[in-house]
Structure formats: C-alpha cells, structure tokens
Amino acid sequence: MKLKTGEVRSVPSEELNQGLVLSLSGDSSTDLSGSNITVRAGGDTPSEGTSVGLIAEISFPPEIAAIALGASTGNVNNTNINIIMSVFSTPALFFSPSLLNFSNENPGVNRTANTPVILLSVGGVILADLNQTINLTFTALVPDYENQTCVFWDEDDSEWSSDGCHLVLEDLETTEMYTCACDHLTNFAILMDIHDVTTEYTYNILSYIGCVISTVCLLIALVTYLWNK
C-alpha cells in the first residue's frame, strides 16, 4: 500500500492547546498497510516502545489551536478540532522538473525525496507564518545519503521548496532519522542526494586500472632507459 489514506483524528481543543504529537509507526516505511497512528499531548512522555518502528512523527505547537478555531479572542474550550494526516510511502506522485534537471546534469547522483511524504491538515484552515514551528521527524527510505534539505510541495509552482523549513536534527547514531522545523502546514519531505553506487564503483575500478597502466608504462620506460644506457 503506497498511501496511509487521510486518517482523521478529532482532538479536543484543550488538548491541542498543550501541543500535540502524532506518531506513525509500522514495520516498513515503504509498505504502510500495517502502520498505526497514535496521538499524545505535547507535554506527555512517550510510552515505552513508541520509537520502535517509527516512520514519522509530527509535533504541533500550542499556537495551532487558536489559529485553527479562529478564536484568538474567544473561548476554545469544549470544541473538537479535526486533524487529517496522510502519508505517501513514495514521492512518485510529486514530479519535480528541477530535480530531474539536476540529476541529468550530475550523472550518478539522483536528488529526490528520500522520506515518506506527509500531508497534514488541521481544522481545515491554512496555517502559515507561525511563530512556533511544527517539528516533523522522518525515517529515511534509504539510509546513509547526504545533503539533506527539508522541503514542502509548492502546489502553485509544482516544485519542492525549502521556504519556511530547515533541518534541525539528525540521528547521528543511525543516519536514518531527521527532524525538520517548518512555520507552515502542507506536504512535507526531505530531499537527499542518492549516489549511484554502481557508477562510483565503476569509476573506482577505472581509476585503479589507470594507475596500474601508468605504473607499468613508467617501469617499461625506466627499463628501456637503463637497457640503452
């Protein structure tokens, strides 16, 4: 299954006022059929085993509640807010011409989204230019790749954009988990440079062969020189 389809959670506004954490866990980030979404208050300590099989996690700041309800001057208690979370296990639906051009201009390097793509909606309103950032933690689809960039899908330009997002943390022990901070809410992922191992291996072999040939030619020239001296 490529998509964890729009799971809706109705959250009391008083809980969202404390901040909220959504966690998606499962056996595989490429097959979401058996994955599960859990919700906890921002101040709560994660239960034991929560991080096991973690695919993605989103931390909402308390600021979200008032904005979602449009109730900066009203009472937000006793009201539920719908949170919709969808997750794509592959970025194939988000075609980016600029990434394709980059890969064409850099043989052996495929710059692409290397995490699941997370789609979020809170209260059905547009959330942008937040004072408190939304933190998103991702598990890389393929580990050990470089040049991580936190991005969102800009629907107007049909391109990935890093505006309003930045990388704040990576798991140095596993090189598999990364955390982004964004000041708005839309579709998120992390771009990485995925190198063609086969191409690099071929280049290394050719380099070794070139060195051997150069050494042999040098030895032949030296022997010829000494023989004729």
From TrEMBL:
Subcellular location: Membrane
Keyword Disulfide bond included in the entry's annotation: yes
Domain GAIN-B: 28-198
Listed PROSITE patterns: GAIN_B
GO (cellular component) term, any one: membrane
Membrane-crossing residue ranges in chain numbering: 205-227
Chief location of this protein within or outside the cell: membrane
One Pfam family of this chain: GPS
Keyword tags: Disulfide bond, Membrane, Transmembrane, Transmembrane helix
Domain of life: Eukaryota
Classification via InterPro entries: GAIN_B (IPR057244), GAIN_dom_sf (IPR046338), GPS (IPR000203)
Name the UniProt record assigns to this protein: GAIN-B domain-containing protein
Organism: Strongylocentrotus purpuratus
